[in-house]
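Case 602 in the screening queue. Each case pairs one protein sequence with one candidate compound; here the compound is zinc ion. For every case the pipeline is the same: read the inputs, emit a complex structure as tokens, and attach any notable structural observations.

Predict complex for case 602.
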Amino acid sequence: MSYLVLARKSRPQTFSQVVGQRPVVRTLQNSIIRNRVAHAILFSGVRGVGKTTIARIMAKAINCQAEEPAARPCDQCPTCREIAAGTSFDLTEIDGASNRGIQEIRELKEKIKFLPTSAKYRIIIIDEVHMLTTEAFNALLKTLEEPPAHVYFMFATTEIHKIPVTILSRCQQYELKRISAGELYDHFQKLAAMEGFEIEPAALSLIVREAGGSVRDGLSLLDQMFSFGEMRISSQDVVEVLGLVSREVLLQLTKGLLEGSLSVVLTSLAEIFNFGLDIKRFTEDLMGNFRTLLLCKIDGCAGLIDLPAEELTELQTLAAAYTRETLHLKLALLMAMAEELRFAGQPRLTLETSFVKIIEADNVVPVSTLLGHLNQILTSLPTYPPTSLVLPGPATRVQVKEDEPTTAVPSPEIQQAPPPIPPIPPASEEQEENAIDAAAEQEEPIAEELIAPDSAAYEKVDQEMKPVKLHPHEKDVRKDWLLFINYVKERNVWMAQDLQRADSVRQDAEGQLQLSYTDAANCSLLRQKENRQILNEFVVDFFQKPLKVRFIIPAAEDPAETNGNESPNRKRAQLASDPLVVMAAEIFNGEVGDIRIGPHSR
Ligand SMILES: [Zn+2]
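Case 602 output:
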């Protein structure tokens, strides 16, 4: 006895059997009833959501002999049965991936010149139509412009963006959605019962989660479970057979990260490693959990959560105990961890250290909150003349360092009149270090100046403490900084990484976004003119206000400031460690020899 896989056995034969896709099905049925079926229809959507299945049912509906028009094909007449069995001469199914050339399309065009043999219409289904070559598409174009009355084309694609606009504009398009978790759950439950299997709800939820909205993917998982041999399938079986992270372990870990229980987190992680599970998949699932938790906290977002009811209730209960900010912070840290994992040589270590960081993040109070508190204190103080205001020493010192980067020199392109910089004479490494030390010492007197009475700098601090009234669309530089980095990351990965290396960021009173770097090398690329322009555009687009980026870097370390005056040795060392040079040396399997610098070097 041959075994028929579930995907074939359970393929829907009528519109009512289609899983999900109600709006598409209804529109198609209406077009049949009103006799307005387009001669070229394109179905798009991810794999396993019913594109070719619906195309075949449409073929039946167009050709059904029992009823006319057949919004509900009978599935009994000879034509319907031939189409279901795949033996109809008038239904041609082509796989675009293996028949992508102009020759195949020419053959097809020859074929459709003839009238159908037994059915009323010829139906051509081209699956994965985006794989056709440009020439093939061009050959098809003419036919689509004036399709013969006896021919209907049905195209299916997972990548609609690869289809030429000229073709798209000649097709009626239907976008098939991923199947919701609830629909998949019900469908699989019915199938399992029909096959005589009993599946634990938690086990079924796992399969639904793995299916990711695709019926076909879910069915092949079910197939795997059915051939496992047990008639009663538990979630433990699913975890073992399919190599998944069990939902219990995932939930345990999520709770551990929120409650700050490092032992729970590390034991769960050990369990995951012992099973040898896919780490990428596991981090995605974990982030998925936190995303759901965050969505639970946002009003009107319940529709965005696609989970079986039971799993949703669990997460909703958990979310209720935490603030939105906490959940957001932890999710952001998890995302940073996922990024780090991509390049990690020791994923387990990366995971463990990141988890420690995420747990400790609980105790971190955002700088913006601290500033808010300080602001409250300042505004509630009676208005003393500035001379009598005494701020606690160390706190003032910290503020001064941040607000008045005296050891740093603004970069010349932005500052109209740059302050004179003492030229750094060409010197040995040792002398240079002294110079840096000297620069660091200068901090002291200027810090004093700030506390001094009647100082203009005091007013500046006060002014900046006032909360900035934000335009509804404007974003706050400090509060939304992480979001901004993510925004940049989506557009330019290295830029986001360099931004992450900034030691502090703030918006000054003149509407400049100040980025401070203690190591100028971390922002040398960013400071290049064209990159800075791009960054400026990102800043304006994201924060929705006319901010200008200004880099604050230590004077001694800014090679641009020293012009040609820096030591040749230092420049050589810099060139030798330049990423481009290192890469070139690696590619050519060579090593850096003589480095020539200066005007004659080229
Ligand atoms: Zn029929």
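Case 602 observations:
- The domain at 247-363 is CATH 1.20.272.10 (Zinc Finger, Delta Prime; domain 3).
- DSSP finds 27 helices and eleven strands in the chain.
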